[in-house]
Design brief:
single chain; 187 residues; alpha/beta; six-stranded mixed β-sheet; two-stranded antiparallel sheet; 8 strands; elongated
Length: 187
C-alpha cells in the first residue's frame, strides 16, 4: 500500500457537486492499493497513519503528537494513481494498482480497520471509483509519502545491481594489473 498523508486545516471531497466527506483539522490521506497487498500491509498503514507525529504539542513543540493523540479527523480517499508507472512514454501505466472490484473491498476493509483502531466517527471518505474533487488547506505544508513495502522498492534493486556492476568492473581493472601467479615446484 502507498499513501500520501497531508496535515490539513480542513479538507473535503465533492462528487457531482455534492460534498460526500469533509473534515476540519486532521489529516487527508490518499490511499493506493497494489495487486499483492495483504492484511499485513493494511495493518502497517493503519498503524502508521494513526501514529505519525505530525502535530505540535500543547507547548508548540513540533512533531510531538499524532492525529490520534490530538483526537482529530482523517479523510481517506482511494487513489489508484499512486501506483502509476511513468517511465515509458507519456501515458501512465496503472497495471500495478489492484483491480477495481478487489480494491473496493480492500479499501472498505482498510477504512473499517482505521475506525476500529481509532474511532469510526473520526473517519471520512470519498466515493470509491468516482471522479472526485478533493479540496484541502495543507497545514505547514506537511506532506508525507508512506509505503507498506518500504524495503522492496524497485529502484533499490536497480541501485544494488548498479553497485554490483561497478564493483565487478573495479575488480576486473585490479586483476589486469595484478602480478600473474606462477606455479613454482616445491623443493
Amino acid at each position: 500500500m502507498r499513501a500520501v498523508l497531508q496535515r490539513v486545516a480542513q479538507a473535503s471531497v465533492t462528487v457531482g457537486g455534492h460534498m460526500v466527506g469533509s473534515i476540519g483539522p486532521g489529516v487527508c490521506v490518499l490511499v493506493g492499493i497494489t495487486h499483492d497487498d495483504t492484511q499485513d500491509d493494511m495493518e502497517y498503514m493503519a498503524r502508521k497513519i494513526l501514529g505519525l507525529r505530525v502535530f505540535d504539542d500543547e507547548s508548540g513543540a513540533p512533531w510531538k503528537r499524532s492525529v490520534q493523540d490530538c483526537a482529530l479527523d482523517i479523510l481517506c480517499v482511494s487513489q489508484f494513481t499512486l501506483y502509476a508507472k511513468t517511465t515509458k512514454g507519456s501515458k501512465p501505466d496503472f497495471h500495478q494498482a489492484m483491480k477495481s472490484h478487489q480494491s473496493r473491498q480492500f479499501f472498505d476493509d482498510f477504512v473499517d480497520l482505521l475506525g476500529r483502531m481509532y474511532s469510526p466517527d473520526r473517519i471520512q471518505t470519498g466515493e470509491f471509483g468516482a471522479m472526485m474533487q478533493v479540496a484541502l488547506v495543507n497545514d505547514g505544508p506537511v506532506t508525507l509519502e508512506l509505503d507498506s513495502r518500504r524495503f522492496a522498492y524497485t529502484h533499490d534493486s536497480a541501485d544494488k545491481q548498479a553497485r554490483l556492476a561497478k564493483q565487478a568492473a573495479k575488480e576486473q581493472r585490479r586483476s589486469q594489473f595484478a602480478p600473474a601467479k606462477v606455479d613454482t615446484p616445491l623443493r
